[in-house]
UniProtKB/TrEMBL annotation:
Ligand binding ((2R)-2-phosphoglycerate): Q165, K340, R369, S370, K391
Organism: candidate division WOR-3 bacterium
Top-rank taxon, per record: Bacteria
UniProt gene name: eno
Similarity field: Belongs to the enolase family.
Subcellular location: Cytoplasm; Secreted; Cell surface
Main enzyme class: lyase
Record: residues binding substrate: H157, E166, E288, D315, S367, H368, R369, S370, K391
Official protein name in the record: Enolase
């Protein structure tokens, strides 16, 4: 049988969930098969992420257009990839890396590179008659991931007064993914009712979580506990809590500036003490970006203090980058890595980062971005890697529910067991 060769690559500008332009890429093969992928975009972006190329032309989309990235695909990337075997993902990705030639994908743009990498992967899966999770994961695929659902938004994801960026529920104590999502949706609507009774607005932030003002940064935890119970579930048994502090956005002059309820400066040690108090009071099972991306000493202290009690996820500090993750492993910083393909730029590098993490006892959590599309690639990625965890927003808004709905279908089609607490408990 003839190899499926790349025949044509076509890119276009589409809109993400925030109304900003982003890339969509089609990869056509020699046998007529086509794979399509789109690239999300983040608002809370780590300094060490691969570069997302924007046009910076104020006359179009206030400078956020991606025509330069599209031109790079058509004029530079496509001519090099045409004729290559679409099933050789590693070689495709290595070629993309070599064409760019920079550490942070700044020549071609990580969005251009990732769009092509994803589209080739999807075309190869269609050609093989396999779902993406089987193409990438093979026979070793065996888990449906536990979802982290952001039901209250703050920080850079919402126009409210919360310093902390995400308050999540984790339905890890349910028997399967279908029931976990049902529980999450019921808690979400119970939360909405409670907020309405408190005369708080229930508009939503970028990731679908509700985003009113609160008295302080702890009040959302208390209200979520009420919502869990009002929906008929048991906190700490069926439903757990998680937070994404996004501490890099609060970091100034080796300290952390919090504004709610009043402006105050907090040291890393004081933050660790705050997290310790919250863990004792609430069933918090995971803390993401509890300290800033360059506060390595603080991360070491945080991990030593709480690493045997909760999951400590590094996002900005690791940015899905193997070299930064290696440094974290050596220094004892965090015990988990957040995985975003947009941060590194190719499917292969994303998988390599997850492999390194899990081989060294770190957990891996596949994540969306705040500016999403309806592409559900990351749902397949989480299943393929057997990481057992996925974070993709509230059970609200189509670009978020597209990933959850995909996992419902995978669970039904392949009868894979639900990860639940398996990858969360130490």
């Amino acid at each position: 049988m003839a190899k499926p060769l790349i025949a044509r690559i076509q890119a276009r500008e589409i809109l993400d969930s925030r109304g900003n332009p982003t890339l969509e890429v089609d990869c056509y093969l020699s046998n007529g098969i086509m794979g399509r992928a789109s690239v999300p975009s983040g608002a809370s972006v780590g300094s060490f992420e691969a570069l997302e190329l924007r046009d910076r032309d104020p006359a179009r989309y206030f400078g956020k257009g991606v025509l330069k990235a599209i031109a790079n695909i058509h004029e530079i990337i496509a001519p090099r990839l045409i004729g290559m075997d679409a099933t050789d993902q590693f070689r495709i990705d290595q070629t993309l890396i070599e064409i760019d030639g920079t550490k942070n994908k700044s020549k071609l743009g990580a969005n251009a590179i990732l769009g092509v990498s994803l589209a080739v992967c999807r075309a190869a899966a269609v050609c093989a008659g396999l779902p993406i999770y089987r193409l990438l994961g093979g026979a070793g695929t065996r888990l449906i991931p536990t979802p982290f659902l952001n039901i209250i938004n703050g920080g850079m994801h919402a126009p409210n007064n919360l310093d902390i960026q995400e308050y999540m529920i984790v339905p890890a104590g349910l028997p399967n993914f279908r029931e976990a999502i049902r529980a999450a949706a019921e808690i979400y609507f119970a939360l909405k009712k409670i907020l309405e009774e408190k005369n708080k607005p229930t508009y939503v932030g970028d990731e679908g979580g509700m985003a009113p003002d609160f008295a302080d940064n702890e009040e959302p935890l208390s209200i979520i506990m009420q919502a869990i119970e009002h929906a008929g579930y048991h906190p700490g048994e069926q439903i757990y809590l998680a937070i994404d502090v996004a501490a890099s956005s609060l970091y100034q002059d080796n300290a952390y500036i919090f504004m709610n309820p009043t402006r105050r400066t907090i040291s890393a040690q004081e933050l660790i003490e705050l997290y310790t108090a919250w863990i004792q009071k609430y069933p918090i099972i995971s803390i993401e970006d509890g300290l800033a991306e360059e506060d390595w000493d603080g991360w070491h202290e945080l991990t030593a203090a709480l690493g045997n009690r909760v999951q400590l996820i590094g996002d900005d500090i690791f940015v899905t980058n193997i070299e930064r993750l290696k440094k974290g492993i050596q220094q004892g910083a965090a015990n988990a890595v957040l995985v975003k393909p947009t941060q590194i730029g190719t499917v292969s590098e994303t998988l390599d980062c997850m492999k390194l993490a899990m081989e060294n006892g770190y957990r891996a959590i596949v994540s969306h971005r705040s500016g999403e599309t309806d592409d559900h690639f990351i749902a397949d990625l989480a299943v393929a890697a057997n990481c057992g965890q996925i974070k993709t927003g509230a059970p609200c808004r189509g670009e978020r529910t597209a990933k959850y709905n995909r996992l419902i279908r995978i669970e039904e089609e392949d009868h894979l067991p639900y990860a639940g607490l398996k990858t969360l408990m130490r």
